[in-house]
Amino acid sequence: MSSDFDLAGADWLKSSYSDGDGGQCVEFSPAHVQTHGVVPLRDSKLPHGPTITMSVTGWSSFVDAVKNGEFAV
């Protein structure tokens, strides 16, 4: 899913599932979930790098799969 949202001033939150030692760091912008119904994501180690945007349904499915251990670590 692509978007033309301006994320320059977005507030980002690190996922509670992100690794605490500096690796595996996923951040999302909750304000865009509320205002646009999409979930912007980025790598916290590259805050000025690329972002991806997912539908809320897609993000929910991904989070459920992580919680259920459907991905190899």
TrEMBL record:
It comes from the Bacteria. Residues 10-67 form the DUF397 domain. InterPro entries: DUF397 (IPR007278). Pfam families: DUF397. This is DUF397 domain-containing protein. It comes from Streptomyces noursei (Streptomyces albulus).
